[in-house]
């Protein structure tokens, strides 16, 4: 059955509108009992800095920019391995009945309690043990979330060395030159011409044709051997395909840093208060950097921006470290400001593009070949993996940190909580749905050519043939992905991680929505890469700073000066620990290992937030409305603990058996630690609710 995107998009918009109109109104009037006669913390504790009454539209933009990172963009793309229908249903149902409910109820609870943090609310409403467990869980989710988002940037921008299976065959096209580059003590480099065939089996189904040229690295002291049983060459052990980094993309992202610094200086020093002027200058500069990047791959600057995987990790770590210790007005705030405009504008364009282009959803509704596991990203069944793959966009525990962070200190009236808490989350759900449609509109062959690591391609040969998604190169030079590689000047085959897939999907939608403008596709693609990476880096600098504050708070209990946020040595030490934490996970992991851990941690934090919101309802005498938060809590707890069981008994155990003992046991230990924290909080919440004990009123009023 052929399904087009436009009816799906219009149906989604209608459902979200109904949910906001009726369900959020019920939550506001009955469950949260919002009351404009109450004085909000923004007025009660006004200081002109942290506590400041803010127009609800301005605060909506701030809150949406803060909660909507790269998660709703990447998760739905990865989940296409299960088919588009499971992810679509979870996004719609999850955002309306779980995610938006969590965000709104936590925001309301924080506003009623003087702008308290999530850990503070847990400490006051449930008890000190639950407060400590919440603090540990929050620090862990920050570390693993930054690793999950950082690995996406590395996969999109950094070069790769893709291992090729020893003993497999490489056949050059007829009448092509055999060339090699030899340097003493270094791997021998073979420039492989386009049209070469990679054979990893004896049948015609077990081969693929590279329509793009690439470079092959063979370890020093070994070489390509002529195949004694036929044509081609036999690949020795440790042969690697070299995939260059994206010099265009890296240049564009690098330019956003000085642009943000300039915008910050412009707004705060040169032309104080001239926000519109600074916005126009910043937007024009970002677009100019995207266009200028087209010249980098053919220029002498290419070596400076064509980074390897490890160089990209180092660059991200250096950025996160520096941005975390710089004054917020200099880099963090102007980057957030630029990001919010780009995000809202781009998503609006995508919604319009989907409606105008009306692409066919090429992905199957449910992929029977991967529904029970064995997919390129999640070696497990649809339940529970689709629910931890798609977290942001449906429900995200990370949002509870924002809803109990800066936002509650800026709410002007309690009635604004409905639009800001529930409405902004619906917008993030829309982001996830648009990303899912962009990926589902890709031909099956194109999706899997991008999303299957070339080193692992042989193990997926039979499934791809069965789902008619075999390598599109078999069709000759007509391959759309090959043509797109030429147009966008990037290698796209085997670029796993989700970011490249989404950028290709966005570029196709934009180019089809604007007739006779196909020449713009390379700019659309690199704009999409910049769009994704910009928000990931914004999350990295903000998250690193939050993590630094939490580490300093902990270290300050050991030695008081280490808790001083203004003491540079303490700030450098805490920042180093946080950056090392998420940097280690990126360096030692992959999307297949990090993203499920990110999903579990994030969803378990959502369980914690919903448990706190449920306890607040009981303590405030509104127990009859407990199902509103309790039902999503039970569902998310079930899916996430099930995923934890699969990961511990499956992937992490296999790591240990394969020799990665430290990584395997570390992942098991961290997962068990987080599950233990959640268990402590849930048990404490149940005991508090059953006992009927009330929180200490003095603590609530004081905002402790």
What are the salient characteristics of this protein?
704 residues; mainly alpha; Amino acid/polyamine transporter I; 3 domains; five-stranded antiparallel β-sheet; 25 helices; 9 strands; globular; disordered C terminus
Q: What would a concise description of this structure say?
A:
The protein is mostly helical and 704 residues long. It contains 25 helices and 9 strands.
Distance between the termini: 57 Å
CATH class of the largest domain: Mainly Alpha
Computed Rg: 26 Å
Major sheet: order of its strands?
5-4-2-8-7
The average pLDDT score comes to: 85
Helix vs. strand class: mainly alpha
Helical fraction equals 55-70%
Total helices: the number is 25
CATH topology of the largest domain: Amino acid/polyamine transporter I
Strands, total number: 9
How would you explain this protein's 3D organization?
This protein is mainly alpha-helical. The protein is built from 25 helices and 9 strands. A 5-stranded antiparallel beta sheet has the order 5-4-2-8-7, with no helix packed on it. It is globular and about 85 Å long. It starts with a helix and ends with a helix. Its main location: membrane. It is found in: Cell membrane.
Topology:
Elements: H1 5-31, H2 41-44, H3 56-67, H4 71-78, H5 84-112, H6 118-125, H7 128-157, E1 160-163, E2 169-171, E3 188-192, E4 196-199, E5 207-210, E6 214-218, E7 225-226, E8 233-234, E9 240-243, H8 247-270, H9 275-292, H10 302-305, H11 309-325, H12 332-357, H13 382-389, H14 397-403, H15 416-440, H16 444-451, H17 461-466, H18 480-488, H19 499-513, H20 521-558, H21 568-588, H22 591-619, H23 627-657, H24 661-691, H25 697-702
Antiparallel strand pairs: 1-9, 2-4, 2-8, 3-6, 4-5, 6-9, 7-8
Membrane topology: Multi-pass membrane protein
Protein name: Carbon starvation protein, predicted membrane protein
Family: Belongs to the peptide transporter carbon starvation (CstA) (TC 2.A.114) family.
